[in-house]
């Protein structure tokens, strides 16, 4: 595929003896939104976590195959995982702000990356909050605790925290599943805006959300990639019956 | 699963209503062509009266589709089925209107059964009646074998109608006293041609439901384009 940012080739992942990903081949395009869909336990979140090596933290995991970002194999032994995770940021299902001020939440990443100049940090924090579409709501309360924000605001703050370390890829694991429709809509608008500058991979159980915001959709089932195509093809005329059955709710 | 049962019930209801609409319009077409060939004014009045039933069902189907879109967010084959149901409903309603327009002119041409015979209109009426029966079967069964028959039979009927219209035109140019009667017959011929055209549209919609392929306008320009490129043009 032209302009692919992430290439996955012959990827297998086992949790102990249990195979969680079975021969995944996938090319994720740059500066587009790619949605991963499928029933619980299908491997979509596991796959998402292979893209910034979050699965390395689990002892029993065994990975075979290749994942390359910008042509570099991220499972090469010389790869610095911390740098990889700077380049490939992640937003989780449940917002997880630190018990610190709004400013400190966003400044945390740049600070541990060695930026200590107050003016520079202020500039980075402001820009990240603006890009995460939350600046107007928090600019007058930067020193208040982040835990006082609403769920939707906390999630956008976490997106700002991810943006502050200047990633190229953002992984999102059901980022709006715990939010009300208005907050969900704000997150979705934000994702569509962010794809101008970032490559986004999102796991979602919400079919309509995948249809609304993604350019490409990958359908996973029992560890296999069943179908991968433009989102409009998947949702109007999928090729595989399993995809059709899943997205129309006739599964199982 | 409860949500899905509601959705399936709505889809079944839509299927029933579209089939009902198809049978009703088929009856209107069948009757109007029969009334035309037999100059049956009483039957023509009945067709005009029954149009309200077609109109009512048209509105019901529109509302049903609107509700499914708003409440169930259909995708894939469900989406194609509901989109096509809207289009088929519209084509059937227009076909019903044409049946009524023919019925309204039967009185004006009742004195010229021999001319209808001479022009070959009864044969075109028979072919159109059979064509529409195939349309009803296609809508009920989604058996695409019928669609290719419909495409070729409708094309033949349209050619025959153009032929008849040309003959009438020649006659009108030679004998000015036939203009009023001939114009009515010409309008009727055009309405039959339109009914054949709507049959083609309906068959194209069923191909879209079953295969997801857009086959309309194919002869004119579509062969050289792929659907993805059409999307990208905007």
Topology:
The complex is a heterodimer of chains A (252) and B (234).
Chain A: E1 4-15, E2 18-29, E3 33-37, H1 44-50, E4 61-69, E5 72-73, H2 81-87, E6 88-91, H3 102-112, H4 118-131, H5 135-138, H6 151-163, E7 169-173, H7 181-194, E8 199-203, H8 207-213, E9 216-221, E10 224-230, H9 231-236, H10 241-247
Chain B: H1 2-38, H2 41-72, H3 76-109, H4 113-119, H5 121-141, H6 145-174, H7 179-211, H8 227-233
Helix pairs in contact in B: 1-2, 1-3, 1-5, 2-3, 3-7, 5-6, 5-7, 6-7
Structural overview:
- Chain A has 252 residues and is α/β, with parallel strands linked by helices.
- Chain A contains 10 helices and 10 strands.
- Chain A has a 6-stranded mixed β-sheet with strand order 6-7-8-3-9-10, with helices on both faces. Chain A has a 4-stranded antiparallel β-sheet with strand order 2-1-4-5, covered by helices on one side.
- In chain A, a hairpin with a 2-residue loop joins β4 (61-69) and β5.
- In chain A, α3 packs parallel to α6 (151-163) and α6 (151-163) packs parallel to α7.
- Chain B has helices at residues 2-38, 41-72, 76-109, 113-119, 121-141, 145-174, 179-211, 227-233.
- Chain B starts with a helix and ends with a helix.
- Chain B is mostly helical and 234 residues long.
- Chains A and B meet through α8, α9 and α10 of A and α1 and α3 of B.
CATH topology of chain B: Methane Monooxygenase Hydroxylase, Chain G, domain 1
Looking at the overall shape, the CATH architecture of chain B is Up-down Bundle
Low-confidence stretches of chain A: none
In whole angstroms, the N-to-C terminal distance of chain B is: 38 Å
| Quaternary status | heterodimer
How much helicity do the residues of chain A have?
Answer: 25-40%
The 3D shape of chain B can be described as globular
What is the succession of H and E elements of chain B?
A: HHHHHHHH
**Nearest-angstrom radius of gyration of chain B?**
20 Å
Q: Which residues of chain B form runs of ≥5 with pLDDT under 50?
A: none
Query: What is the structural class of chain B?
Result: mainly alpha
Helix content of chain B: over 70%
Distance between the termini of chain A: 33 Å
Calculate Rg of chain A over CA atoms.
Answer: 18 Å
Mean pLDDT of chain A, to the nearest integer, reads 94
What is the level 1 CATH name of chain B?
Mainly Alpha
């Amino acid at each position: 595929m032209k302009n692919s940012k992430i290439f996955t080739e012959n990827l297998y992942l086992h949790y102990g003896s249990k195979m969680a990903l079975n021969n995944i081949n996938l090319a994720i395009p740059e500066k587009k939104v790619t949605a991963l869909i499928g029933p619980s336990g299908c491997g979509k979140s596991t796959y998402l976590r292979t893209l910034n090596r979050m699965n390395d933290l689990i002892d029993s995991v065994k990975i075979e195959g290749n994942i390359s970002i910008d042509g570099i194999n991220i499972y090469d032994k010389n790869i610095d995982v911390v740098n990889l995770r700077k380049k490939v940021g992640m937003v989780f299902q449940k917002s997880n702000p630190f018990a610190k001020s709004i400013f400190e939440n966003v400044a945390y990443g740049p600070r541990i990356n060695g930026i200590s100049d107050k003016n520079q940090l202020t500039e980075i924090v402001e820009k990240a909050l603006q890009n995460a579409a939350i600046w107007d709501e928090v600019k007058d309360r930067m020193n208040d605790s982040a835990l006082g924000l609403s769920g939707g605001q906390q999630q956008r703050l976490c997106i700002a925290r991810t943006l502050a370390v200047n990633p190229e890829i953002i992984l999102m694991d059901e980022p709006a599943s715990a939010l009300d429709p208005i907050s969900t809509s704000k997150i979705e608008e934000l994702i569509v805006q962010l794809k101008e500058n970032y490559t986004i991979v999102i796991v979602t159980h919400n079919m309509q959300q995948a249809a609304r915001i993604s350019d490409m959709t990958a359908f996973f089932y029992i560890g296999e990639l069943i179908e991968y195509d433009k989102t409009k093809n998947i949702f109007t005329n999928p090729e595989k019956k399993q995809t059709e059955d899943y997205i129309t709710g006739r599964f199982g | 699963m409860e949500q899905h049962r509601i959705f399936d019930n709505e889809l079944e209801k839509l299927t029933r209503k579209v089939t009902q609409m198809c049978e009703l319009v088929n009856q209107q077409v069948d009757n109007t062509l029969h009334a035309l060939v037999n100059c049956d004014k009483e039957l023509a009045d009945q067709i005009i009266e029954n149009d309200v039933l077609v109109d009512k069902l048209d509105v019901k189907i529109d509302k049903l589709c609107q509700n499914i879109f708003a409440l169930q967010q259909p995708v894939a084959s469900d989406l194609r089925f509901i989109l096509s149901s809207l289009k088929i409903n519209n084509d059937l309603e227009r076909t019903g209107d044409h049946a009524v327009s023919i019925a309204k002119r039967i009185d004006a041409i009742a004195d010229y059964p021999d001319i209808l015979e001479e022009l070959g209109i009864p044969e075109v009426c028979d072919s159109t009646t059979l064509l529409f029966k195939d349309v009803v079967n296609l809508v009920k069964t989604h058996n695409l074998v019928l669609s290719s028959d419909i495409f070729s039979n409708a094309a033949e009927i349209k050619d025959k109608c153009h032929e008849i219209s040309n003959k009438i035109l020649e006659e009108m140019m030679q004998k000015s006293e036939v203009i009023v009667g001939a114009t009515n017959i010409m309008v009727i011929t055009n309405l039959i041609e339109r009914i054949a055209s709507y049959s083609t549209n309906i068959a194209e919609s069923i191909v879209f439901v079953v295969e997801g392929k857009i086959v309309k306008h194919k002869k004119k320009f579509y062969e050289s384009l792929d659907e993805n490129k059409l999307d990208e043009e905007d």
